[in-house]
Design goal:
Blueprint lengths: L2 H13 L4 H10 L1 E5 L4 E3 L7 E7 L2 E7 L2 E8 L6 H4 L11 E4 L3 E7 H10 L1 H27 L2 H12 L4 E3 L2 H7 L4 H14 L2 E4 L2 E4 L2
Antiparallel strand pairs: 1-7, 2-6, 3-7, 4-5, 4-6, 8-10, 9-10
Helix pairs in contact: 4-5, 7-8
């Protein structure tokens, strides 16, 4: 069994969908595909035609304003994009961009079917409400960080959240985009962190020591 099929089966078991007809429909109509890093999956202004569920890797959802990226949220494995969930209510255009932050495996479900299942299957409707609730809480947390934390605090939190085995493979500019800050400000803070022994820097690689 391929990794894509294994992850799809794991998704079905974790979500505990109970209706046999729903499970059969998911297996029949879902598309699981592997994407490289930095692939633009959905651009602001495009119509949302599919429900997007991340099975492996990482994605970021952001808006652009005056050539700056404003991060809305990241998606981790087995999380569903709430932006794409809006297509389960009515056909609509995206208000943000969705990009893979690393090589990712993504499950896509046609929006019109996801909308149909919402009215037909209780466990699918419960799943959608759960995703809305989780991501609403996440968005509130992001806005609270912008409002109440300094850039230094936000940067340190970001590095801790993004590290994999203590490593963050992002450039200063990429981090600046994620935090809606200037590259100069991020570079200055990273040098300060390095001086304090919080991180080590090698080219595009940052090692988090705390």
């Amino acid at each position: 069994m391929s990794q894509e099929n294994q992850l799809f089966s794991l998704f079905l078991s974790q979500r505990k969908f109970v209706e046999p007809e729903l499970i059969a429909a998911l297996k029949q109509h879902s598309c699981v595909k592997r994407h490289d890093k930095d692939v633009l999956l959905l651009e602001s202004g495009e119509y949302i035609t599919a429900l997007t569920i991340l099975l492996a890797g990482k994605m970021r959802v952001y808006q652009e304003n005056n050539e700056k990226e404003i991060l809305l949220y990241h998606l981790q494995p087995f999380e569903t994009c709430p932006l794409s969930l809006s297509s389960c209510i009515e056909l609509c255009q995206s208000e943000a961009n969705i990009v893979t932050s690393e090589e990712s495996i993504i499950l896509s479900i046609p929006a019109h079917l996801a909308k149909e299942w919402k009215d037909k299957y209780t466990s699918w409707r419960d799943y959608m409400f759960e995703v809305y609730k989780q991501q609403y809480t996440s968005l509130l947390g992001n806005y609270a960080n912008l409002a109440f934390l300094t850039l230094e605090e936000r940067l340190l939190n970001y590095l801790k959240q993004q590290q994999r085995n203590h490593i963050v493979n992002e450039s200063h500019q990429e981090i600046a985009n994620q935090l809606a800050a200037s590259r100069v400000a991020i570079s200055r803070l990273l040098k300060r962190f390095q001086h304090r022994g919080i991180i080590e820097m090698k080219s595009k690689e940052i090692t988090v020591l705390v």
